[in-house]
């Protein structure tokens, strides 16, 4: 029998005994039998509460909820209020159980999202396929994934194509097509074809493991409201116990009131004042908010982040991969002083060491064009036969260095090769040629001379303008773009999507300095949001009041440094996240106000002798159930 089944059996038996006792009490039944029924109902419902209360007293915990409930219910028995005493314990247990169910459901909404890990991997070793645990797969090993199986490790497809279910990562149920060369994250489900893939990182470092770790630790970071309630309960509970003693003992002795009547009022005061509605509902509200955000593909690294998300007044964005798709295509290339094939080979050699979207686009462009030239010279179709010669010899690449926000430099065939922006070329004493066309420009320099450039285009994300527009409707007073791209390109994009202010041609340290200025200008009146995706955004994400990373294309460093992670790289998720944060904070405040108002009102009635123990039970258990319901339902938002 499970613990839940045992509880239902015990609760049901206790409720039957209580109801039977109440019927006998109202119909003039045998008093001794009635009392026995109430005592049996009381002990059956609350023996564990009594046990923990006694154990707590021995540990010096004099003001816990279990102690309060045991004193108040036992006191009711002592003055002959047997039915009320049993009812207090029974309904307290019911309230605790229902709040646990609500908490479990909120937790399930998170853990279901994070049930991403595969049990085994069909790894290929020595020409054989072996089933091993994901933790046993090394970086670079090949494995297969069949339809219906979960992708076990972050990988790149080597052969085959398929449709993938990304709903566990992004909250979206629409399948996504993937083919050879595409990177796919662990936790996604293979829907159609058999694929062979190569692992890109260890299982413990994969997307699924990282997400699970983030969510497991999210509830540990308390919001301001939760921290307030924890401190409040430490003071509140001893104060109300003292007041209860004054009502039930001191006042009757001083003013010769009816001792039984005032003890009853004091006990009611203790039941009413039990802080469980506050202690349970506020953390549950924030956990429900984390769950609601998770269902929309937004991972929030702690309840404390909700406080700042709800107070964002300035939103700053990186450009590439954040407001744009980050999937570059080369629109134009120009060789300067070298053959075009030589430019392509140099660019491919330098960019082959980088995983940046620009680097991947240039390598792909060089590969396609070099092969095409070679095949056409042989009079054959480029689609039928690829060139047998490699674009470059990797053994001739040495002293490789990648500078975040600038590009790559290395030594190739004994000479310095540079591929990056104008600032990187200037570091090597090379003046980059002037390029007037709008777009992202990658310059190539070799042996101290400019060899040419590539002009790349990057498509704006569909929801970028909508995101900026709706952020302003949510109270964001200023939107800013902090980009390493050229002025013309960045300013053009900013105008198109409605950004208020654009700062371009920034290095990572420049972005950091700009963010500090934004925070200083904002002061204590609001919070600054920064949204980015690259390794170069890591310092800024860590510095911002709220750092948001794109979890799909984003680097591991960006994801780790951020406060929230957008799993499908859709910037509109920020709007949804802020709406949930605002709603969560409102619901938490509403629950605090609701609980204190009801409790205060019933306390006054109890002191005046108007309320009964049943009203006290409602003020405790009823308010608990009411606030729990508000927590679960109130954090849902329409999108």
Write the layout of secondary structure elements.
Blueprint: H1 3-26, H2 31-58, H3 65-78, H4 82-113, E1 121-125, E2 128-132, E3 142-145, E4 155-159, E5 162-165, H5 167-170, E6 176-178, E7 183-184, E8 189-190, E9 195-199, H6 207-218, H7 224-255, H8 259-273, H9 276-295, E10 298-300, H10 303-309, E11 312-317, E12 329-335, H11 340-351, H12 357-377, E13 397-403, E14 407-412, E15 415-420, H13 422-427, E16 440-446, E17 449-457, H14 464-473, E18 478-482, H15 487-497, E19 501-503, H16 508-522, E20 527-532, H17 538-543, E21 546-550, H18 556-561, E22 564-566, H19 572-607, H20 613-634
Parallel strand pairs: 11-18, 11-20, 18-19, 20-21, 21-22
Antiparallel strand pairs: 1-2, 1-3, 3-9, 4-7, 4-9, 5-6, 5-8, 10-22, 12-17, 13-14, 14-15, 15-16, 16-17
Helix pairs in contact: 1-2, 1-4, 2-3, 2-4, 3-4, 3-8, 4-9, 4-20, 7-8, 7-9, 8-19, 8-20, 9-19, 9-20, 10-19, 11-12, 14-19, 19-20
